[in-house]
Amino acid sequence: MTTIAQLLAEATRPLCSFEFFPPKDAAGQDQLWLTVGRLKPLEPDFVSVTYGASGSGRERTLAVTKRLATETDYRVMGHLTCASQSVDQLKAVIDGYADDGIGHILAIRGDMPGGPTVPWLARPDGLANATELVELIRSRGDFCIGVAAFPDGHPARHDRALDARLLADKWAAGASFAITQLFFEAGAYFELVDRVRSLGCPIPIIPGIMPISLISQVTSFAQLSGATLPPAMMARLEAVRHDPAAVRGVGAALAAQLAEELLAGGAPGLHFFTQNRSRATLAIWRGLRHRTQ
Residue 110: which region, alpha, beta or left (left: phi > 0; alpha: psi -120 to 50)? Predict the structure, then answer.
């Protein structure tokens, strides 16, 4: 199968991809697979599943990722984090992905319990950062490796120049592309790209997009990811706070506007954080036909 790196290098149109999360119960499973089916007409270039670093969360991730790889024709990318895992555990997951025919891995350092602002502490038998994880994955097979990028800066450091240097280090270690964390202003993405290019790093950077459906949810996600919440955006959402349908409509419109600005400025694609829902993603991508065909 053509790799994501090859798709990016040879693309004549922006790429489209989706991120799902592993459900905790049967109702969530039904919702996930309903969404997977509903999004299929968009013919995504790849899909991925967020990773729980330990316990049942990790096992749910691996189970959903394997099912996507074996029961659909999607190009599937597995997630992997360093957090709370030994090198031996990481090797087992990497080898398991290979056994399931999954040739793409998104390598992320991950966060400590309590969130990204909690000081990072590597396990004595683990890895220190995502660069080391990229190197480990490369040592285990011929994987196409993605990494994370931070348009608004990593919430633990708030140092955008350092973030750019770390992304360049991950590329030098063997990463082929990056996907950004959540952000809400196109300028933050393009400034990140400029900082990385100024270091001589050509890594393609795919912007991550999340259509807002709940004000409380986006506020929480922004705190976790370090994303800046633009006052004008929040004012539009607050104006309809007591109307859930209107919040979803405004959220989808804001995401569509951001997507339009990103593609107009040359972004290589859009990676949708779907929250296992399909309606907003379908509407936004279909509204971008003038740029995606």
Answer: left
Q: Residue 215's pLDDT band (boundaries 50, 70, 90)? A: confident
pLDDT per position as a tens digit, 15-27: 999 999 999 899 9
Domains, the chain, ranges and CATH? 4-292 (3.20.20.220)
Q: Give every CB contact of residue 60 below 8 A, 6+ residues apart in sequence.
A: 22, 23, 24, 52
Which stretches does DSSP call E strand in the chain?
15-20, 46-49, 76-81, 104-108, 144-149, 177-180, 205-206, 208-209, 269-273
Residue at 274: amino acid letter: T
- Catalytic site includes residue 19: yes
pLDDT tens column, 114-147: 666 677 788 899 999 999 999 999 999 999 999 9
Residue tagged active-site, from 10, 19, 59, 260: 19
DSSP 20-46: E---SSHHHHHHHHHHHHHHGGG--SE
CA atoms within 13 A on the CB side of 90: 31
